[in-house]
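Entry type: protein chain
Record version: 2
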Amino acid sequence: MLPPGRTIITRADGIYALERALRRRGFAQIAGADEAGRGACAGPLVAAAVILPAGRRGEIDGLTDSKLLTPQARERIYDEVVKRALAYQVVLVPADEVDVRGLHVCNVSAMRRALAALTTRPDYVLTDGFPVDGLGVPGLAVWKGDRVAACVAAASVVAKVTRDRVMCQLDLDHPRYGFAEHKGYATPEHSAALDRHGPCVEHRFSYINVAAAAARGHGSGTVGVPAARRVRARVRVGENGQVFGVEGGAG
């Protein structure tokens, strides 16, 4: 018997075409995984995994890469994703773990943990940019997957909205940095606050701009002292995406 012919999918085919093609090959449950916060110098790295249902139930109006959406559109699509998804999971990696283990290791590990925790076992996995092994099912790393595959785009929205909510919570604990506005990215306003106050416990001290601010020792903030990691505000995300601040916790 001849093997099936190669399926060629272009971006013009739409964001659902790749999953349709995989389902035609017998992969019923297709999970997508993506992260938010790689480029931020403060706050957690957040990974999400999502399985959308087949057919029209899984088609969400306006679904695309979360970075291309307005905050209002992200919130709307987030609500649709969590309502329609067969399964979804979110994993948060705090700043101190990123410092200890490294960004790429934490990124791949977080996506693996989110995928492994799905209550519906996927038959195939699509990830944005980076391959994730050790899942026991076939998978594919897709360049700009959050613009090509619906389940990856859905994961990108879940990760982004969750992280934005976390950063707004952290802004209440550390109001001098403007986390609610820039979400921990190195904007001019954030850089000025770092220079003025020094880094806080939620900053990633392995990032060069944070390390430089800690070394300068300006301001009255918790500059780069290891003891600053001993007591911190942890964040917990509920099943409905609500963000809770949890006092204490070892860093």
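Comment: Strands lie at 30-36, 45-51, 87-93, 124-128, 139-142, 234-237, 243-246.
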